[in-house]
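seq as requested:
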Amino acid sequence: MSIKIVGIAGSLRSQSYNKGLIQAFKDAVPEGVEMDIAAIGELPHFNEDLEADFPGVVQDLKDIVDSADVLIIATPEYNRAVPGVLKNAVDWLSRPYGKNSFNGKPVLVVGASPGAIGAALAQYQLKQSLLHLNAHVLGQPEFNVGGAGDKFDATGLLTDEKTKEYISSALEILLGTVKK
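struct tokens:
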């Protein structure tokens, strides 16, 4: 049985540390596991008026997330909070009512930031929303990549070996949540 992971980076910046972190997870997946990275930059602003004619780009995102066994969401931290683009994606993925894409799904929340706490406050805020949506949010491992400017190169590639080791460990724990 193949296990499917979907990764979402909560940043639009082309060389985002969080995009690099999601890519590093993808690069580390073991044999028998596939990982797709879902884009969220083209989603319209959440508006319940649009639910009657559900936007195609939103349905495409829901389809990829619904196909996943587990999710990894990487959030940056802007002003001590989740960036709007990521919260927008979470809101769309919870809709329409009764078709919440997070329901019962294991989710590992991670984050990278130039600051010392590695997006910890944004992760906490995101976990609150995901718990409300009945996601199975992993409490451990906590995955905060602080000082990201020293751990990624100019193209967004993760270069820090200790972080790569931690990714492998976190993947093992996350994949252990999949019911076979």
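The chain has a mean pLDDT of 96.
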